[in-house]
Amino acid sequence: MKSLRRLVTLATAAGAAMATTVALAPSAMAAVDPVLAAPYLYQWAGQTSPTAAMDATGVKAFTLAFVLSDGSCNPKWDGSRSLTGSDKTMINTIRSKGGDVVPSFGGWSGTKLGSKCTSASALAGAYQKVIDAYALKAIDLDIENTDEFQNATVQDRILNAVKLTKQKNPNLRVVITIGTTTTGPDTWGKRLINQAKAIVAPVDVWSVMPFDFSNGGDMAAMTKTAVDGLKNQLKSTFGWSDDTAYRHSGLSSMNGKTDNNETVTLANWNSIRSYAASHHLARFTFWAANRDCSGGGECSGISQAKYAFTKVVAGYTG
Fold it and tell me: CA angle, 92 as apex, 310 and 249 as ends, to 5°?
């Protein structure tokens, strides 16, 4: 994710695991769906505390950004932090409060595993390290920019890695998140979806980012047409009904001001949630809990109550 969504990568100090949580909390403690309503949360700026958001809103799941390459085909948080350090402690804490997480691989900037790993099997191995580290139920592959999204070789590598990963972890849910136009996936997005069918890569949820695609206007209306376009592409490619295609669709918006200076208002966000619920979308989220506060700087750029957008997500049940 770019610009406001990905300003800088900072290393954070590793923390000691909670004394009562030597190993990761059992998945049974986290009955929550980690995919459905999980705002993005990053650790380099803004409101980085998951527990503050959980206590203020009742939200139970987070999409943690970003797992990147450390310069080789090896995953680290933001390309620098160990899988066993402070992020693991944070995941334990979220789970101890009845929540769960879905790590996000990729984003707009940084060195991506999809381009750094030279084969599908190597890339699947990198995914597996993260899956095993946290006993994951789901992963989010945020495929963006020219190094992954606009690269046919890397697109196919990612999809083949998904296929291998699902063979080893049949109960794992895989989300693919991509950019969009106001009417649905662009040429590269359509190629990715069509290749998923050709390769028989079992992607569970296709999620679009309906922003940075206009000069302003009614962001609720444009979000709906973008997701409708995604649904139509999935329906056409896989032969699904409208209902089935919607249930494999999702959206990841941005609260307040976007990189293009569009504005997603709280009223827009409530309207989008109603739309998502009416079609039973599989994913309803936004970038990011860190920015879910009033004003500029690391906040949303608009006047809003703290965690107002997260509260809307917390109320989404599909």
Answer: 45
Tokens describing residue 26: 């059992």
Give the chain's largest Cα–Cα span: 52
Catalytic annotation present for 144: yes
Of 63, 185, 201, nearest in space to 123 by CA: 201
pTM of the model: 0.92
Contact between residue 235 and residue 197 where contact means Cβ atoms under 8 Å apart:
no
pLDDT value of residue 2? 58
Q: Please give the structure tokens belonging to residue 186.
A: 């662009």
CB 53 within 8 A of CB 59: yes
Phi first, then psi: give them for residue 285, nearest 5 degrees. -150, 180
**Average pLDDT for 189-206:** 98
One DSSP character per residue, the chain reads --GGG----------PPPTT-SSPPPGGG--S-TTTT--EEESSSS---HHHHHHHH---EEEEEEEEESSSS-EEETTTB-TTSHHHHHHHHHHHTT-EEEEEEEESSS--HHHHS-SHHHHHHHHHHHHHHHT-SEEEEEE-IIIIIT-HHHHHHHHHHHHHHHHH-TT-EEEEEEE-BTTB--HHHHHHHHHHHHHT---SEEEEE--SSSSSS-HHHHHHHHHHHHHHHHHHHH---HHHHHHTEEEEEESEE-TTS-EE-HHHHHHHHHHHHHHT-SEEEEE-GGG-SSSSTTS-SS---TTHHHHHHHT---
Taking 60 as the threshold, does the pLDDT of residue 234 lie above it? yes
Q: pLDDT at residue 11 above 50? A: no
Given the residues 144, 148, 262, 298, the one annotated as active site: 144
- From the list 315, 310, 245, 305, the residue with the least C-alpha distance to 277 is 315
